[in-house]
Amino acid sequence: MDCINLEVPTVLKGKTALVTGSTSGIGHGIALCLARQGANVVLNGFGEFEAARAEVAALGVKAGYHGADMSKPAEIEAMMAYAQAEFGGVDILVNNAGIQHVAAVEEFPAAKWDAIIAINLSSAFHTTRLAIPGMRARNWGRIVNIASAHGLVASAQKSAYVAAKHGIVGFTKSIALETAQTGITSNAICPGWVLTPLVQKQIDDRAAREGIPVEQASRELLGEKQPSLQFVTPQQLGDLAVFLCSAAADNVRGVAWAVDGGWTAQ
Ligand code: NAD
């Protein structure tokens, strides 16, 4: 994957990035873009991880993996301790792990609500509270929270996801204020539709529900929300994360940056 090439190609050399949920989709794309700029990377997420780790290592940086379940604070603490012991701490924290469940609120399983709030929102509190002391000591840090267009506007049937994503946008702003006079910044990226397993499931469910081909379900999904009628790509999000980590973004603080093909402009 080709990523944006800033003037100094190894602008992040010597930094360590921890990207939650980076065995797949957006997190994987962001991990690759940060590695291409020279950052060492700690990957996290479920499923097969060795291929993703090898892909990052092939870029000439140190690549690690920790399988912490982001719904479990004790496992998050173990992951941050691993990053400290093996990498000397976390300079760039990308809170990306997330899940989705689609149902009307009166039918929403309580356990799914709890899981979405834990993984999509509370995990960022735990990683951030554990990463900030080291960032303060080094007076440099980047916190990039992967929110969503659903952090800015709502859709029906996604109450937990919308609550978590609005929550993480607010959390991002609070941390930006708490660190405003330091070299640490905190920002959110708000993607529209990105064709990852998380969205493919929604397209497949729609095709099955309406008895239509998957391609038609995909076109309908985009047409409802995303005026560009194009999926955002993990690489575009990775390139924005690289920019947020650059010196040019030293005073970008507390923003919720939409990359959504015009979704939230409507
Ligand atoms: P994905 O399903 O491809 O990847 C999710 C990643 O999170 C995987 O690596 C998975 O293993 C990991 N994960 C899930 N539960 C976890 C847990 N409990 N602990 C640790 N890791 C866990 O999804 P994606 O589309 O790449 O989504 C990544 C993020 O981007 C999510 O926060 C999602 O809400 C957000 N987002 C996605 C879209 C989109 O259109 N795909 C749009 C806006 C925001």
Main attributes of the structure:
7-stranded parallel β-sheet, 2 domains, 46% helix, 7 strands, binds nicotinamide-adenine-dinucleotide, alpha/beta, 266 residues, Rossmann fold
Describe the structure.
The protein has 266 residues and is an alpha/beta fold. A seven-stranded parallel beta sheet has the order 3-2-1-4-5-6-7, sandwiched between helices. The protein has two domains: 9-192 and 233-259, 3-Layer(aba) Sandwich (Rossmann fold); 195-231. 46% of the residues lie in helices and 13% in strands. Helix 1 runs parallel beside helix 2 (50-57), helix 1 (25-36) packs across helix 8 (234-245) and helix 4 runs parallel beside helix 5. The chain contains eight helices and seven strands, in the order βαβαβαβαβαβαααβ. The site of nicotinamide-adenine-dinucleotide has 29 residues, from helix 1, helix 4 and helix 6.
Short description:
The chain has eight helices and seven strands; from the N terminus they run E-H-E-H-E-H-E-H-E-H-E-H-H-H-E.
Produce the secondary structure layout.
Blueprint: E1 16-19, H1 25-36, E2 40-44, H2 50-57, E3 63-66, H3 73-87, E4 92-95, H4 110-138, E5 141-146, H5 159-178, E6 184-191, H6 197-210, H7 214-225, H8 234-245, E7 256-259
This protein binds nicotinamide-adenine-dinucleotide (NAD).
CATH class of the largest domain: Alpha Beta
User: Whole-number average pLDDT?
Assistant: 96
CATH topology of the largest domain: Rossmann fold
In the CATH hierarchy, the architecture of the largest domain is 3-Layer(aba) Sandwich
**SSE run:** EHEHEHEHEHEHHHE
Spatial ordering of strands, largest sheet: 3-2-1-4-5-6-7
What is the 3D shape? globular
Which secondary-structure class do the elements indicate? alpha/beta
* Tally of domains: 2
Number of helices: 8
Helix content: 40-55%
Question: What compounds are bound to the protein?
Answer: nicotinamide-adenine-dinucleotide
